[in-house]
Design goal:
globular; binds adenosine-5'-diphosphate; 211 residues; five-stranded parallel beta sheet; Rossmann fold; 10 helices
Length: 211
């Protein structure tokens, strides 16, 4: 069993890589989905957010207004820190629980041999210690801004601000066992993923065989 931490900055191509890893047989945990889960209505996470930021961050249905919250914290590093202090430990805990479940489930009936944690904030949250290896998706900034404009309608100023709020790409790469350069076409990226996968399996097999 191998646990991969897949990370990279916003719009780098993590989802694109995760899709290919799924095609290759991996099970994927999407940290963005977990991040939404820990602030659903009625959760302690959402209650703490309201206590700190006030009910103005809720929409009319009582859900967290992610757009409002996003513009608030991306404009204000201190607010971002306060929000992260609430959500990050909860995201980490939930993902750790899912890794445990995967490991236990695999012992009784092995299905997927590889689990992928698709998490932009893998290193920032401290999850790098819970994975066997880190894969980083990198992209040149020009492409990244263009793709974010296309996908999310972001202006380049907005995109730059969001990129600046994350650990720089070069720092993430320092933790990486494998790096995928997604500056080219999707086909080229998929080929890199396939190559890394094959290499990882080879290394893992020789490790388990004690070679
Ligand atoms: P992330 O999950 O890291 O935020 P995505 O995988 O969603 O990034 O990629 C960001 C956007 O760029 C998406 O709209 C995706 O379809 C597009 N994209 C990703 N890789 C490429 C590529 N190699 N060429 C062109 N567009 C791409």
């Amino acid at each position: 069993m191998i646990v991969i931490g897949l990370t990279g900055n916003i719009g780098s191509g993590k989802s694109t890589v995760a899709r290919q890893l799924k095609n290759l047989g991996a099970k994927i945990i999407d940290a963005d989905q977990v991040a939404r889960q820990v602030v659903t209505p009625g959760s302690p996470g959402l209650q703490e957010i309201v206590n700190v930021f006030g009910p103005g961050v809720l929409d009319s249905a009582g859900k967290l207004d992610r757009k409002k919250m996003g513009s608030l914290v991306f404009a204000n590093p201190q607010a971002r820190e306060r929000l992260n202090k609430i959500t990050h430990p909860k995201i980490k805990q939930e993902i750790e629980r899912e890794i445990d479940l995967f490991n236990k489930g695999n012992k009784t009936s092995p299905k997927n041999r590889v689990l992928v944690i698709d998490a932009p904030l893998l290193i920032e949250v401290g999850l790098e210690h819970n994975v066997d290896e880190i894969w980083v998706v990198k992209v040149n900034q020009e492409e990244q801004i263009e793709r974010l404009a296309k996908r999310d309608g972001m202006t380049s100023k907005e995109a730059l601000r969001r990129i600046a709020a994350q650990l720089p790409q070069e720092d993430k790469i320092k933790h990486a066992a494998r790096v995928i350069d997604n500056s080219g076409s999707k086909d080229e990226t998929i080929k890199q993923v396939d190559r890394h996968w094959e290499q990882m399996m080879k290394e893992h097999l020789s490790e388990t065989a004690g070679i």
